[in-house]
Amino acid sequence: MLLIRCPYCEEERPELEFRHAGEAHVARSGDIAAISDEDFEKFFFIRSNPKGVVFERWRHVHGCARFFNAARNTVTDRFLVTYKAGEPKPEISAEDAGPAAWANREPAELNETSSSRLKEQVTE
């Protein structure tokens, strides 16, 4: 079972206690009636769906019932960090993100990086 850390309760709980609430850090218009239909469509329906790290909103529905944000790797389904709603988006390095962060690199570059890591592990 996947465990998710609630930043308000400050403990890890089973995923069944949580609900996904969409993409985090979406800029909302101050005057929704003034924007064009195309811009409204982009705001309301169109979301990024990258392979790798995504920033999402979650709600602890069977706990404190509060919304929070999380950085999650979509390839490994691993939560990298959870943080309270309203806090700025954290910086996540490629190494913290894991294998998915390497998905858009050329194979030669991947092999070069993998072999250098292997050499580091052998010499330690």
Layout of helices and strands:
Blueprint: E1 3-6, E2 11-14, E3 19-23, H1 37-44, E4 53-59, E5 67-73, E6 78-84, H2 94-97, H3 107-123
Antiparallel strand pairs: 1-2, 3-4, 4-5, 5-6
Short description:
One of its GO terms (molecular function) is sarcosine oxidase activity. The chain is α+β, with helices and mostly antiparallel strands. It contains 3 helices and 6 strands, in the order βββαβββαα.
Strand order of the largest sheet: 3-4-5-6
**Gyration radius from CA atoms, angstroms:** 18 Å
CATH architecture call: 2-Layer Sandwich
SS content category? alpha+beta
- Per CATH, the superfamily is Folate-binding superfamily
Number of strands: 6
Low-confidence stretches: 100-104
For the biggest sheet, the summary is: 4 strands, antiparallel
Sketch the topology as an H/E string, one letter per element: EEEHEEEHH
- Helical fraction equals 10-25%
**Whole-number mean pLDDT:** 82
Q: Give the number of helices.
A: 3
What coarse outline follows from CA principal-axis ratios? Answer: globular
**How much strand content do the residues show?**
25-35%
CATH class reads Alpha Beta
- Domains, number: 1
Distance from N terminus to C terminus (CA atoms, Å) equals 34 Å
| CATH-defined fold name | Folate-binding fold
